[in-house]
Amino acid sequence: MLSRSFFLKILSGALIFGAWEFAGRTGVNYALPTFLESMKALIDMTISGLIFKAYADTLRPLVVGVLISAFIGIGIGVWVGLSEKFDWLISPIFIIMQAAPLAALIPLLIMAYGIGLTSKVFVVCIMAMPVIVLNTSVAVKNTPSSVKEMARSFLGSRKDVILKIIIPSASPVIFAGLRLGVSAGFIGAILAELKITPTGVGDIISYSRMTADYPSMYAAIFSIILLAVIFLNILEKIEDVLFKGNNQGYIS
Amino acid sequence: MSNDQVENAVTVKNVYKNYGDVEALRDLSLEFPKGQLTSLLGPSGCGKTTLLKIIAGLLPATQGEVLVNGQQVNKPGPDRAFVFQDFALMPWASVIRNVAFGLELRGVNKSERESIAIKYIKDVGLTGFEHSYPHELSGGMRQRVGLARALSVDSPVLLMDEPFSAVDEQTRRKFQEDLLNLVKNENKTFIFVTHSIEEAVYVSDQVALLLPRPSRVSEIIKPSSFKNKDINSIRKDSEYLDTVERIWKSLRSYVE
Ligand SMILES: Nc1ncnc2c1ncn2[C@@H]1O[C@H](COP(=O)(O)OP(=O)(O)O)[C@@H](O)[C@H]1O
Ligand SMILES: [Mg+2]
User: Fold this and answer.
1) Cα(B194) to centroid of ligand 1, in Å?
2) Which of B15, B44, B50, B54 should be mutated for ligand 1, with most atoms under 8 A from CB?
3) pLDDT of residue B59
4) Domain enclosing residue B122, as ranges
5) d(CA B72, CA B41)
6) How confident is the model over B140-157, as pLDDT tens digits?
7) Gap between the Cα atoms of B165 and B200, Å rounded
8) Which tens digits make up the pLDDT trace of B13-60?
9) Could you give all domains of chain A from N- to C-terminal order, each with its CATH number?
10) Which of A:25-84 have CB within 8 Å of B?
């Protein structure tokens, strides 16, 4: 089973990269380099160490923002899911946050927090947190009432019901939200570097666009996607280990 | 104090229950003798689950009181264990964790509660499935997990909400016989909800017929004990058939 899904992943990768290579070679657009050119640029950046320096800058707001979004987002989500009052109070904020055009908010953030790390972390959080909060609260609200009742009837306290029933029951949907949130956080981190101050990977992208070094530009974009995919896979593994029975648990 | 305490494990006194405008129970009183199996029998929607949950302390009564061993109760307690109609298993937990969950919530340490759970898993015939997950089990097996969970906390009163409704007819008969053995061997008080007349007559010491909403007890029937008779001949026993017929006649007047 594992090797088959692995094979399919390789196959889909090969298809996408093949199409990219093909599009690059036939010259769909002068700005689109081929896959192999981009990979060469990526290898050059790796050897020169440029990419590592860039990620040292990019990862800081990304990791901080994603961690804040995950912990605070899940916390707020559970809270909102448990209390109707806070649902009314808090949910609209995150729905607006999710729908708001981020580009329009960035000047406000810069005015309030300057062009440093804080503003970038905010951008990551604005991207990542709403989907985490909303997924978590929906999952908490949808905990089957019969299982909660079961825990109460066997003398579970409120805390037992939350920790032993609601959280495990909600965890598949919470993790789905976390995955979406992390993806959005990656976009946020790059967006922050393009819109606030060019640093890290965002700097490589904007600098190489300016100098028309398109292979480097695509190499940088490719590397961020690669990192996101790796990170999401790790998250999936963590979820598998933590909640073994949950994967098929709801198909009864 | 009165000998009520000695004889009745559970007493329901003048209980009313309204869900908003819906009047589910009206002035319902019923006594559950210790060590016996009492069935609650009535048409669907008449308030059987409601009554059971009020006794369990999961739902507040609008009015009236429930005594368990002479003490008024209004919340779940160690003296009552519930078997849920829809099993209410935790899909993310193995059979053994599900069975031991009542003990886990009581703070029994892991090795002790698991050894107790293993005993009851064996009693309900699920040995070998300790580390399976609920989605890997059939409906009947899941119900047995729910039963083992309720048995493992060793409460003197067992509340069972249509425990056999999700299983096929053969399994159902097997379960009924197992239940009779439990009543004989465990010295517990069983409160058993069913909508099957045959089942109620077969397994019960007393059958309480409930009226359609708003529900009260219309009649209490004590089937003479079929427990000492040969299991295979009971279903053909004339007294058994007469009792079934009598209950059916009572209920039919409301259904029509
Ligand atoms: N939470 C609830 N809110 C409103 N009405 C309810 C609720 N639970 C049960 N009822 C109503 O109360 C009546 C009795 O329900 P229930 O106790 O589940 O019946 P039974 O178990 O005998 O089928 C039904 O008419 C049902 O619609
Ligand atoms: Mg019911």
Assistant:
1) 15
2) B50
3) 94
4) 91-154
5) 25
6) 899 999 999 999 999 999
7) 13
8) 999 999 988 899 999 999 999 999 999 998 888 889 999 999 999 999
9) 33-243 (1.10.3720.10)
10) none
